[in-house]
Amino acid sequence: MRDLASREDGTATTEWALLLPVLLLLVMLTVQYGLLFHAGQVADAAADEGLESAQAERGSAAAGRAAAQRFADGDQVLERPQVTADRGAAAVTVTVTGQVPSLIPGMDRMAVSRTASGPTEQFRPAP
Fold it and tell me: What whole-number distance in Å separates Cα of residue 115 and Cα of residue 69?
């Protein structure tokens, strides 16, 4: 009986040594997904903010770019945000792109891009 017990000494430590890296990787993947989701929400909100500024009757593409850039720069999760805005006679489009930092060694940064578009506001006098 003592021989059997001595052969099993240290098995729990070995099991934990093999299992712990897998558990840590799963936790880090979960947090990484959370960062990706949050950065997407920030990019979406920044694009909406830029759209509101650009589509106003006296708005411009430059005003939309500036508003979206200010919003995107206010959050640290969306790294290197870049904003493009296009205002035509009938429609406005604002796109915000950026990168999400990687928590997992060897994993590249992930790109996030969101676009908001809508009609240009126009004053139309009553007939």
Answer: 13
Q: Are 117 and 45 a contacting pair, CB within 8 Å?
A: no
The answer to whether residue 79 sits within a structural domain is yes
5: left (phi over 0), alpha (psi -120 to 50) or beta: alpha
Residue 113 lies in a domain: yes
Euclidean distance between CA atoms 95 and 88, whole angstroms: 15
The string of DSSP letters for 3-67 reads HHHHHTTTHHHHHHHHHHHHHHHHHHHHHHHHHHHHHHHHHHHHHHHHHHHHHSTT--HHHHHHH
Q: Does residue 5 lie within any of the structural domains?
A: no
| Per-residue pLDDT tens digits for 17-48 | 888 888 988 998 899 899 999 999 999 999 99
Would residue 18 count as lying in a domain? yes
Residue 97 is which amino acid?
Answer: T
